[in-house]
Amino acid sequence: MVLPTAEDRAALAVAMSSDPAIDLVLGPARDLMTVDGSTAWRSGTLGSLLSGLMTVLLVARDTREDERG
User: Fold this and answer.
1) Tens of pLDDT, residues 31-52
2) 10/5 Cα distance (integer angstroms)
3) What is the rounded CA–CA span in Å between residue 27 and residue 36?
4) Would you say 16 and 22 are in contact if contact means Cβ atoms under 8 Å apart?
5) Pick from 40, 22, 24: nearest CA to 32
6) What is the residue-averaged pLDDT of the chain?
7) What is the b/e burial string over 30-68, where b = at least 16 CB atoms within 10 angstroms of the residue's CB?
8) CA 37, 8, 26: angle at the middle one, nearest 5?
């Protein structure tokens, strides 16, 4: 584990929740005291980003189909 002690995890939780840039990019940090909460926070953000990108690419592909001939 990267942050083995509770004090280290608490310091990370305070740092992540007090930085507005991280809130903007990754969303609000919740439950960073556990490995599961940290993993859900990071993977949820990545999943949202990838699903949004997939939606944009699918819409572009489907709406530009008539232009190809």
Assistant:
1) 878 888 888 887 887 888 899 9
2) 9
3) 16
4) yes
5) 40
6) 82
7) eebeeeeebeebeeeeeeeeeeeeeeeeeeeeeeeeeee
8) 40
